[in-house]
Amino acid sequence: GPVRVKVDTQKSQQRAGDRRADMSYRASKINGMTVKNTEGKELGTVKDIVLDVRTGKARYAAVSFGGFLGIGDKLFAVPWNAFDCERTDDGAYLVLDVTEEQMKNAPGFDEETWPDFGNREFTDKNDKFYRRGDQNRPREVPRQPRPNRVPQSNQ
Could you read off the pLDDT of 105-121 as tens digits, one per residue? Predict the structure, then answer.
């Protein structure tokens, strides 16, 4: 007769949920993390992270594509929000939606001469390449004027 196998779907779903749920990583685990494109091809590795100390958010990952794409020893400031993070049983990796050809034309910098991330001209040009525009820049939220309070009468 047929062989019946009982599958504990609750445990399987819980494990899958656990992998998706917590995407918090120590910076030391992100440094060295693999970067792949959406087809799963390995593009490079994270060498450093640029943080906005006011907001506590990551702004850029400095990524080396040299060993994979023959670009040389350049680093690339990839806006943090250009990445997705995938987690597998073997660990996590970052996904960047670019082709190898696009990366060969990406604006890069020498490891010895980092760009000024406070320079709006640099960040605008750089971010535009990754089609993220101004989404990565912390925004100052204008204060809304308070409405004049009119005392409520209890009558």
Answer: 888 898 899 999 999 99
